[in-house]
Specification:
The chain is mainly α and about 300 residues long. Helices cover about 80% and strands about 0% of the residues. Helix 8 runs parallel beside helix 10. The longest helix is centred in the last third of the chain and has 27 residues.
Length: about 300
């Protein structure tokens, strides 16, 4: 009697095993988020574990930061970029100091990008192979950038140069979006692209989405899977840079961080859902216009200084 399973049954079992292991991998992210949150609470014990401070902190300012987190995450989760630029610009406009804004945004992104990655996985917006290629190089670039920003260089010096690059890239994206035959081309040097994107994201306060997402879409990749995959990889990139900033700068402005986290996590599933409702051509054009607007906003202060 042959007790060996037929090849078809064995293949099905292997496929099911891969599916289950993949699910455990992706849904293990919430455990990482909770662990990270616990570390932050322990790290900032004296500031957080005081009933008086917690009650006093839940005020009008907290809800303003929460709304900023919702808006920034909707922009980033739907278009694949803009969280840092959107949240920082809003925070600065309501009077939050630059140092607190920078730390708050990076730490909050540790959680919002995790929620976004889970949401994109749930809505099947992710190309797992692309995430694999972007993950490790992006993390390396972000850690190096965060360390250099903390001790060596000023990220503001590099911002105008990357803004010019993004404007040029955005024009190319819009042209490709208007064409009916936007042919997909092979994207080379993904590791270099991810390293550069992670580095600039940490140094310049943003750039992972505009650099990585816009480059891949400019090469003809499908916006839905590109945005979902880049957002999924961004979780690891943000977590790495966030931890680095905490180690070298400490944590300030917990009210800002908490508001951004709550608002961003709440908005993440909605932004992932909207990707499936937006057609490719309009989405590509919107991405290009968004990059131009954000880049012009970055260049504006430097242009004023020249004149």
């Amino acid at each position: 009697m042959n007790l060996e399973s037929p090849p078809q049954i064995r293949a099905v079992r292997v496929n099911k095993s891969n599916i289950y292991s993949s699910k455990w991998l992706w849904f293990g992210i919430p455990a990482t988020l909770l662990t990270g949150l616990a570390c932050i609470l322990i790290y900032n014990y004296h500031a957080l574990f005081s009933v008086e401070k917690l009650v006093a902190g839940i005020n009008q300012d907290f809800f303003i930061y929460l709304i900023i987190g919702v808006v920034a995450q909707l922009v980033d989760g739907t278009l694949g970029m803009g969280y840092g630029a959107t949240s920082t610009s809003f925070l600065m406009s309501v009077g939050v100091p630059p140092a607190i804004s920078s730390t708050g945004v990076h730490v909050a992104e540790m959680f919002t990008t995790g929620a976004s990655a889970i949401s994109h996985y749930k809505f099947k917006n992710i190309n797992k192979r692309l995430v694999t290629y972007l993950l490790i190089p992006g993390v390396i670039g972000s850690v190096v950038g965060a360390y250099l920003l903390a001790d060596v260089i000023d990220g503001k010096v590099i911002k105008p140069f990357i803004a010019v690059y993004m404007i040029f890239l955005a024009i190319m994206i819009i042209i490709k979006g208007l064409r009916n035959n936007n042919v997909k081309k092979k994207t080379k040097n993904l590791g270099i692209l991810a390293t550069f994107g992670g580095f600039m994201d940490a140094v310049g306060g943003g750039g992972w989405g505009p650099i990585v997402t816009s480059t891949l879409i400019g090469r003809g990749r499908d916006p839905r899977y590109t945005i979902g995959s880049v957002n999924a990889a961004e979780f690891a990139v943000s977590f790495a840079s966030g931890i680095t900033f905490l180690l070298f700068q400490g944590i300030n402005g917990w009210q800002v961080i908490a508001g951004l986290i709550v608002g961003g996590v709440f908005a993440a599933p909605f932004s992932a859902f909207f990707i499936n409702k937006i057609q490719r051509k309009p989405m590509t054009i919107v991405v290009g216009i968004l990059i131009i607007c954000l880049s012009i906003r970055t260049l504006y202060p430097f242009i004023l200084k020249l004149f």
